[in-house]
Amino acid sequence: MAESSFEMSAEQSAAGMKSKARRAVRVNPERGAAPLVIVLVFAFLGAALAGLAGYFFLFSNKPAPDNAPAAPIRPASTLIAPARAREIQEVRAIMRSEYRSKRNEYLVRERGPEDMLWLTSQAELTLLSGLFSHYLETTARFYEIVRILTNGYLDQPSQLKELYGREIMRRFENAERRRKMLRRRIEHDPALELFGHLDYIAYYDSIAFYSFDNYLNGAEKTELTTAMEQANNAKFMIKDFWDYFKLRLDEYRVDFKPSEDVWQRYYLPPK
Predict the structure, then answer these.
(1) Has residue 107 been placed in a domain?
(2) pTM of the predicted model over 0.70
(3) DSSP classification of residue 114
(4) Does residue 3 form part of some domain?
(5) How many distinct structural domains can be found in the chain?
(6) With b meaning 16 or more CB within 10 Å and e meaning fewer, what string describes 41-52?
(7) What does the pLDDT look like over 98-148, one tens digit per residue?
(8) Is position 18 within any domain?
(9) Which residues are listed as membrane-spanning (predicted)?
(10) Is residue 203 part of a domain?
């Protein structure tokens, strides 16, 4: 009897232990869902970050597409005459050596941080003086041809075309090419204001040039009148421009003076 009661109590205790073990390992669905979601979220974020890092690693050094803007191209010096190209190169070389050469470091120290601006202005004024000289000479030659025409100094009309092509047309086209080249160079430079005045001179000169060209090719005589009027406008603008331009040249110590003979004959009143 004692043995059977002992066996029953042992079986009951074993069954109780199994029941507790089952309750211990039983998972409440409501409580177990939250940790599972958190684990999945962290796994998703980790995968996303890894993918993002891989994308930047693979594509950050990707070469530029074919339609990407090309690097700016330096204006070709072949647009201007060889002599003028050499002059520009010499000015640039002087400007670079003045600023970079060790033997001239004292100039930078004496002038201060504005030294480069001063040298750049000096170089651009030198370029402007060359362009100004071209329009001055071209307008003067235009007046000379008109004088020859009105006084009847030519025996044959064909001589006028030949003289016009040799003395004016080639020089005017060269000046226009140089003006376009210089416009690209000084778009953001201190010489832009002066260049704007030269643009007006070139505008009136171009009207005179094309009007006279039309007259030579059989247009009405009014084209000749228009050409003379516009050349006269350019002449007075050249005189006004020089009064202001020479002050800037003196300020930056640029050595330039127009041809004395041309200036006295065509731009100053007769004595």
Answers:
(1) no
(2) no
(3) T
(4) no
(5) 1
(6) eeeeeeeeeeee
(7) 545 555 555 556 655 555 566 666 777 777 787 888 888 888 888 888 888
(8) no
(9) 32-58
(10) yes
